[in-house]
Amino acid sequence: MEHHPYPGFESLTHGTHNTSCGSVLSFHASTPDTKGKPVLLLVHGWPQNSFMWRHLIPTLSKRLPIFVPDLPGYGYSTPSQSGSDKLTYSTAIVNALHAHYGPKLRVILGGHDRGARTMHRLAVSRADFPSLDIVGLFMADIVPTVEQFASFANPAAAIGYYHWSLLPKGDMAVGMIMAYGGARFVRETFSSAFGGTRNEAGRANLYADGAVDVYASHWEKESVVRAGAEDYAAAATTDYQLQIRDQEEGKKIDVPALVLYSERNLGAMHDVPAVWEKWVKEGTRLEVHGIGENAGHFFLEEAPDECLRLILEFIGSLGC
Predict the structure, then answer these.
(1) What does the mean pLDDT of the chain come to?
(2) SS3 of 183, please?
(3) Whose CA is closest to 12, among 21, 23, 3?
(4) The pLDDT value given to residue 13
(5) Other C-beta atoms within 10 Å of 171: how many?
(6) Which residues partner with 262 through β-bridges?
């Protein structure tokens, strides 16, 4: 598996692990000696890979051990051979996490977009992972999958999130994107994220270090396009159905949680604090913060200083 070192990842080492779903998971991580501290997981979203954390890792890795994987099929990880639902993704990440750090771990879960959905599933299903002591959870720019699908009754939301309906079409979606050009598709996805805004500083941060070129280069591979399609197909079926069952059974987040969201993106379609209150167990601490300054969906790259401040405050509140 060819891999090129990333700017911002100098404090981490690169590794791979053959996981239970058949994915050879690519990851970057701190030294296996945690010194008794919890490991901070940072899981990327679509259509990116682990490089999206480059602005945050130099600071966060001084505070806690870090584990930064590419989701199965994304970046340098090979695709899953046994499903793309978020429980399967969670299990693969935990496989690799234990291979690097050992059998019993304290962890703080963190993710953006698809990675946040994966960490949401891991937190809610934590009884299935007794080897992990989950100290806290932070999620960036999502509402639960069920809530996102419900929002598509609003045409503006359906248009803005058109890929949620396109990608589950599988072979048709893969063929259309490859014909259009996977790299071109990704570049235009990022370009459209800034339509009508004046967030030039955020744009510069997002495009810094050739990041969009990195993301686009992976999407030239049909295997990556297909992995993205299968990810969203799982969201529309297995992930959706499991969340419905969770709510029926009262199975909710029961660890301290931080939600960050773009005020002009997700906040324009949802009352984000009110939505998340329904998915967190009563009495569990929930913090919800909007990111302003015209920052969009990719605000972890657009506004890294503000995000670092809020994440570090949350980590500190956990006693870490």
Answers:
(1) 95
(2) helix
(3) 3
(4) 95
(5) 9
(6) 291
